[in-house]
Specification:
Blueprint: H1 28-33, H2 37-60, H3 67-98, H4 104-120, H5 132-142, H6 168-187
Amino acid sequence: MVSNQQEVLVPPKRVNTDYPLIDSDPHLRRVFGYARPSDYAIAGGMAAVSPISFWVMERVSPSHVGRGGFAPVMRLATAIGLLGGLHVLYQRSCNRFYGFTENSREVEMDMREMVDKVKKGEPLYGTSTLSPYLQGVAARNSRYSELFVHVIPWFNIVNHNQHGVDTAKYYQQAERELEAESAKAGSS
């Protein structure tokens, strides 16, 4: 039996992809923060499909329920559209974190964000009030959860250090940048 004082690290399975893995368990804030403008545009279009198609169906073949019947159903169609749009946005952004689709922009954003945190002496993935054991439980439960989010909406909202990437690259890049800055300052 593992005590609450021990940290249990279960390494995530590496998936062979054409693009680099950024994070196998991205935090919800990072997913929406790294989303591209095109993701928001596509998500907005997908969100509009449901109410627009319902409105068109009502115009083509009226239900004759009157004003009192159409409005609640239109609100429901809009809510369904918004949830679908958010799902598309979340999925597109997560696929880039996992390396399933082209992600060069996100790789650069991740490197910049993490190197800046290293330079400031901050923890890479934030601080958590949970014990290391519970952070591991949270990581194991939400790792690659986006692949099944259409069935069970499960998101990572816990800060932990188990993201399936070697964080040494951030420290090495920060060291190179600090050396370059000190060499530049020394030559001035």
